[in-house]
Queue: 4 jobs
Job 1
Amino acid sequence: MLLVLLVPSVLLFIFYRRWKKKTKKKLGDEQLVNLLTANHSSKKVSAKFILLLAAMAFITLGAANLRAPGAAENVNRKGRDIIIAMDVSKSMLADDVKPSRLEKSKQFIRKLFDQLPDDRIGLIWFAGKAYLPMPLTADQGAASLFVQSAGPDAVPTQGTVIGEALRLSAESFPQQSKRYKVVLLITDGEDHDESAMSMAKQLKDRGILLITLGLGTVEGSPIMDPETKDFKKDKLGQTVVTKLNEPLLQQMAVTNGGLYGNLQNNTDAMIKEVAGIINQLEKKGTEGEVSNTNYINYFMWFLAFALLLLVIETFITERKKT
């Protein structure tokens, strides 16, 4: 787009030359004026303008940062593929785990990222439905941003469909490999999906390790509705109390051969335990799956040539050689 600015520059120069000729005729006797301006070279003036114009063009091309793709450089990372299935239903707003079940899960996940720097992370949010907001990626910074934004508003349909979340998790892994895959399920376990246990068994058959983490207490807690600023009530007007369904999560872990943990306990100890289980798995080489393309940049050549033209223009005078 900047090259378009060269067009009015050319038109302005043409207008300047014509104005100069007309002014020269108005000064007086044409032969006398020519004699007084005999040492002035119009050709050199044109040459200086052309050099300036060319320098502007090369500066514009340099600013455009023209480049060509070079050789692809494969990133040789070793790690595992981990899908974190995160319950974002309204029951996760209960505060029987401080500051709330949802905030506790976010804190846990962000700290866990620091223990697994070489692993690819994918995120699934679920309530009454399951969604994949972020597929497997090595960019854990982006994953942290997604975790921070998780909440009940992200999934309009309420409920807790653990089975669907596990099914979507299994489908989100690369299908060509059956090893070194982990699903980390974080929920209060208030399941309204009878397929949860069968999906835990299917994950085992596919070689996917399931780690279930429970949030909440057996006594339970009412749910504060952020819109009404009041406790959630059922159709009969009774306050809804949400409780941790620990037996379900424990049985799912046993069926899969994985691990169950309660995040009501010491978070740092649970992070260490979960990271230890994952790190026991043999790391899968991901060379070739992630690659960076090196580019050959040409901007410095354009800028260098523009500088050369400007230097040449400086040494050209508007006087004729004597």
Note: The mean pLDDT is 80.
Job 2
Amino acid sequence: MSINELQDEVIAEFSDFDDWMDRYQLLIDLGNEQAPLDEQYKTDENLIEGCQSRVWLQADEKDGKLFFQAESDAVIVKGIIALLIKVLSGHTPDEILNADLYFIDRIGLKEHLSPTRSNGLLSMVKQMRMYALAFKAKSV
């Protein structure tokens, strides 16, 4: 599936709920469904700067595609990173770098997050793109 198809899937999933408490619950459920990150990846190098809570992000390249794993000590944040992984994991560095992540605005995520969580969301996206850039540079 393309990144845009995955984003449309997320938008459809969130559009089932009008109430933001239900949407928060969906985020929490997504975070809880995510496999825990192996302890070996919970390092300072994998810690995302700019997040209020602690978020570790691990990226691995396989057959020219990036696969992300992450964990956070905050349930909502864990759900947010799970969404980003759902949309971006399994794609090439170029696809990740060129993706317009319109789902964030369409599901109203940014406007329903506190300013610090919103900054954290931007930091997570930025870090995923930095990994994509690094893997792209390595493969040239």
Note: The first strand starts at residue 55 and ends at 62.
Job 3
Amino acid sequence: MIVKNCKLTNFRSHDYFELSCWKETTMLSGENGSGKTSILEAIYEAMRGKSFRAVDKEIIKRGADFYRVELEYKDGEKTTVVYEKDGKKYFLVGDKKAARLPQKYRYPVVLFEPDDLNLINSSPSHRRDYFDRYFGQLSDTYSTTVSKYNKALRQRNELLKSTFISRDAMFSWNIILSRLGVEIWRSREKLVASINEELTKVYQSIAGNDDEVVIKLKADPCGRTESDYLGELEKGFEKDKVLSHTSFGVHRDNYEFWFNNRLADGSASRGEVRSIVVALKFIEADMILKTVGKAPVVLLDDVFSELDEMRQKALVYNFKKNQVIITSVNAVEDIETS
């Protein structure tokens, strides 16, 4: 057990709520709209430093002056998150106050939401966000690089909206995007290759067949060196001015799932798609353990109702060494016997 206790105050619909975890597996049951997901959201925020659902002003309970999350770990360490309605937010950790959750106080989390089951047929931007969050837990450098890239991209896009903007004024931003973009692309390609080493094997262990699954990172081949990346940005200047945004770069990358040498979106059945996503979650937890040296806490948000018995059992078996916190509409007496 890693998480021992979590207290919420003025967090979404909760005036006050306290969760005590006494086992490796904790079940939260209740009707839709009762605030179950909000509890997972609060735990995630205290462990990772930000919500997986929304910005702070959308989280604070209507009419309240603040929200507060207090998370206590089994070893006695505590993390407190406070957000005030004037926009101030801070974390209390290790007897210190910080505007952001320090990296050493962040704990890895594998989050499984019902919407993740639609990952394969979702939009490219949704898949990019998914894998950026995935890879960010494996590498602090990756998260920092993506954040810097997105900030530089916003600056370049703002300049493109200006009436009188020259190529020379754009050059410094092109240099920054080229350096960061190539670094992101190389990291993505390496991490996707690591997933692919295990994906088919793990998928087959769930589905009980010999189907093959591969993720392909679809990126423009012209941007694989900094000089090539820079050249593409400069070549697209006039086009970008008309569009008022940057049309080339890793912010347009896509992740495609291939099933038996065909695009999974359209060729894989609903059950096959779900097995692929479940396999991806198992690999994520394993990669985190091997890379970070910590077994992640697993948050399962009402996904059991979306999976058949075979995949439910696979989840229980593969996450038996992790602390698991589950929400469900239907109460389950003993999840370990599912």
Note: The chain has ten helices and 13 strands.
Job 4
Amino acid sequence: MRKFLDITPNIDFMKLKKFGYIFSSIVVLLSVAVIYFKGFNLGLDFTGGTAIQIRFEKPIDIKTLRDALKDINLEDSVIQEVGKNKRDYEIRVSLKKGSSKEIYRKVKTALDKHFPNQYEILKLDYIGAVIGKELREASIYSIIAVMVAILVYVAYRFEPVFAIGAIVPLFHDALITMGIFSAFSMEVDLSVVAAILTVLGYSLNDTIIIFDRIRENIRIRGKKNLLLLINQSINENLSRTVITSGTTLFSVLALYLFGGESLKNFSLALLIGIIVGTYSSIYVASPIVADLERYLRKKGRKYSQVGV
């Protein structure tokens, strides 16, 4: 491991920047098309539905309860443990599955069959679509606010060219992640929105670290051969990128495989985002900075000096 950390490779990443542009453009356009024509499979948080809180006489696990709901085709419902005694659970069912009365009747039938006289229903709540609409709007505003804050921060810390190079990959990462969820009709709820916001922060962190190294190298060598300098900066950070992204990826993969049904979509969004975010830091953010600098130089325009 020590030897691996000490080695600085010499990979020509910028040689493939045109391929990166083409590949990213195709995937983003496909994602936008899928989202536009197919939309999202919105979860209960956004559509409204029914929430049933249950208490069992003896502790049971979520898998046992989910297996019991298979008889009524509600095994994909959100099931959350309330407290830590493994006796109290909340089952949340989307409005698309039926009315509150219908869901209550189905759940009671399944529980009577698998847990006769071993439970009590503590509470039955209806989550209205109005609340779901408010949550949808709040989620959209949250993502927009994050994008704007990042744009201002990077423009202030570096310079406008770097700000553009940092913000474009964020749209890239978010659109591809949401496009995959839309294409495969995977449920989008608040946990997925939280995962996307987390991914934006993770992707930005990776990009900022590369930009920091580029800025340091520019101070020393100037901008005469920016492509070569960007390549060098990415290579110098490659060991860190591999180790950080690799360990995070394995952790999230373990969460996806063993975290249970309720964490499936959250961890999947993180998995997709980490892979796409690492790729975009190298093949989207850095090439944009190089090409914008070259374009502005040809036009004779000057921005603030890097590192000032």
Note: The longest strand covers residues 119-127.
